[in-house]
Amino acid sequence: MQPMLNIAVRAAHAAGDYISRQVNNIPNLEIEQKSPNDFVTHVDRQAEQRIIETLLKAFPDHSILAEESGQQGDSEYQWIIDPLDGTTNFLHGFPHFAVSIALVHNGKMEQAVIYDPMKQELFTASKGAGATLNNRRIRVTRPVSIQGALLGTGFPFRAKQHLPAFQSMFADFFMQAGDIRRAGSAALDLAYVAAGRLDAYWEIGLKPWDMAAGALIIREAGGLVGDFSGNENYLETGNIVAGNPRIFADLIRKLQPHLSSDLKA
Ligand code: IPD
Ligand code: CA
Ligand code: CA
Fold first, then answer.
1. Which domain holds residue 207?
2. 135, 141, 186, 246: least buried by Cβ within 10 Å?
3. pLDDT tens digits along 42-58
4. Residue 3 alpha carbon to ligand 1 centre in Å
5. What was the pLDDT predicted at 265?
6. Residue 102 sits in the same domain as residue 188
């Protein structure tokens, strides 16, 4: 395994093992609200500290962009970290959440790890070397169109101004797709696209740490990832579409009539 990926895996295990030990302690956690429907506990913060310590011990000069502690350092290597993606699920003991870690080098995504500590599933990718789940190669689904497909999405529960646009996309896709899931962890749901468990995924208003690792894992599993125009700017716009190449093109085309002016960027 690539040495930088190896360290990222070690960091993801350190955080994930800690998070899974805290599951029995959820009723005692002090919950803070960062903004409407955006909660955090010391579990998110402690998990993040474990990740950062592990990464900086191995690579003291690298920089960090992490959900709970923000930006630190300045380097051509930047780690993008979501220590606990799916906090709402975690707080309800709903076992679908993950640790997400990506390494960007000079603006290009190079390494990615998503770890589900409840199922002990480790998704990884190194640029140009494919994607794996627990060391076995994974691929996106064979080219299917939206007809009969299983899609994943996220509801805009923290940005409810997007509800009308979301409802109109949802209604259109739902009439054509086989079914749609909202499992509650964008990072893990993207890993599921890479593993062929979902045919495609879309969501409005994500943050870079929700998407970075999942995007590389999907690409290395043969899928495509883009913003709502099908371009590369999903980390900036926060709006993401991902899936096997055929459904990706299909969804981008079908999204266009539903985009309000603020989602067209
Ligand atoms: C959230 C989850 C959720 C998605 C939100 C994210 P968090 O991340 O990925 O599924 O719908 O947009 O912000 O806050 O649990 O790390
Ligand atoms: Ca997140
Ligand atoms: Ca988080």
1. 150-260
2. 135
3. 999 999 999 999 999 99
4. 29
5. 60
6. no
Between 37 and 239, the higher pLDDT residue: 239
Indicate if 82 and 182 belong to the same structural domain: no
* Same domain membership, residue 203 and residue 229: yes
- In whole angstroms, what separates CA 244 from the centre of its chain? 16
**Centroid of ligand 3 to alpha carbon of 109 (angstroms):** 20
Please tell me the pTM assigned to this model: 0.97
Asked whether 154 lines ligand 1 (CB < 6 A), one says yes
Which residue among 104, 137, 170 closes a domain?
A: 137
> Ligand 1 pocket, 82 CB below 6 A?
yes
Instruction: Tally Cβ neighbours within 10 Å of residue 28.
Output: 7
CA-closest candidate to residue 200, choices 218, 220, 213:
218
Q: Which residue from 158, 184, 181 is spatially nearest to 96, judged by alpha carbons?
A: 184
Same domain (yes/no): 108, 172: no
Q: How many CB atoms lie within 10 A of CB 63?
A: 17
Report DSSP letters for 189-207, one per residue: HHHHHHTTSSSEEEESS--
Residues 111 and 190 placed together within one structural domain of the fold? no
Strands 240-243 and 200-203: antiparallel
Contact indicator for 48, 173 with CB cutoff of 8 Å: no
Please state the atom number of ligand 1 nearest to the C-alpha of residue 183: 10
Q: How far apart are the first and last CA of the chain?
A: 38
pLDDT in tens, 13-42: 999 999 999 999 998 888 889 888 888 899
Whether 128 and 248 share a structural domain: no
User: Would residue 144 count as lying in a domain?
Assistant: no
Q: What average pLDDT does range 103-120 have in this prediction?
A: 98
For residue 242, what are the β-bridge partners?
201, 225
Task: Decide: 226 and 248 in contact? Cβ < 8 Å.
Answer: yes
